[in-house]
Amino acid sequence: MHIGLGLQMANLDRTRSDADVYALELGLAARAEDAGFDSVWHSEHHFTDYQLTSQQGMVLSWLAGQTSRIKLGTFVTVLPWHDPLRVAEQFTVLDHLSGGRAVLGLGRGLGQREFVAFRVPMGESRRRFVEYSDALLEALETGVMEYDGELYQQPRVEIRPAPLASFKGRTFASAVSPESMEIMANMGVGLMVIAQKPWPTAIAELDQYRERFMELNGTEAPKPILVIVTGVGRDQARIDTLRNVRMQRWAKSVVEHYEFDNVGFEQIEGYEYYGALARNIEKRGLDTFCDFLADLQVWGSPQQVTEKLLEYVEMCDAGGLVLPLCFGGMTDDEARDSFELFATAVLPELKKHDVGGDLGVTYDASPAAVA
Q: Which of 38, 106, 134, 251 is a plausible cystine mate for 294, CB 3.0–4.6 Å?
């Protein structure tokens, strides 16, 4: 099974310097290859303590120079915040620098303050995502960007350096609302499932996506990648801290950043789902929702974590996992201890399982090796 390390670089409550946050997670990322991970993935957020992940291409390019085997992905690049031509260049260059190890993860974004700061109307995000992704995926296949849409127009121009290899089979997109699932199936890309819905709901929507993917593309959908915040403890006291302190603080930060309790989303095109979610939070209470969100993630002893992750993979028929291991204001010692325990006691057990569609666990030595 393909196992990726997720980088979030949060500095919640500013309990330490941003430099220390980067030093910790970059240090773990540089060790991921030797520890046995198959990939490292970098999120995208801007302007707040939530995640200090504003420059994905720079971080992954740096990591390409520290490693030789692992895949380098984004979870996700938020397309409406970028010029698609720049994104095409970024991933093409990353692919050249890494010898074909780039993995393209795409999304349309949810952070309202980020949309405001980038001066992008949030109500246009779905339409922008459809047009931008259409133009981007075509450019990465042909080496030419040209598009004439409602919101995006790009005169014909070549991508230089030319794309190293096809991104088919190594492109994934995050989808939460049912409408987004339809878009991803139409795009012909794999799904990145971020744990924020009841698992039975997520599984039912995956089934719908697979059915539509087959109808639209004539082939089976790629196996999804699951993104699950994960913590491992050596004793019950540490496990209790992971769940009751770190997971809770992480869940609260998610709600704060995304404004999940903002019923104003009802009035924004493409975000009606989140308006309904806010109404549900209003009804049940914020603490209840934070508990729910925390409990969708995974924590516990090495055996408990292994069993729970394998259960989720089997339920979703997933092809891989992306696991952020630093979260919720962990101290450096807590983060390193969880990383080491995961790498030595959980990762080897997970990698014994061949689930298929595993995004390149077996690697070709040639420079252009791709998933």
A: 251
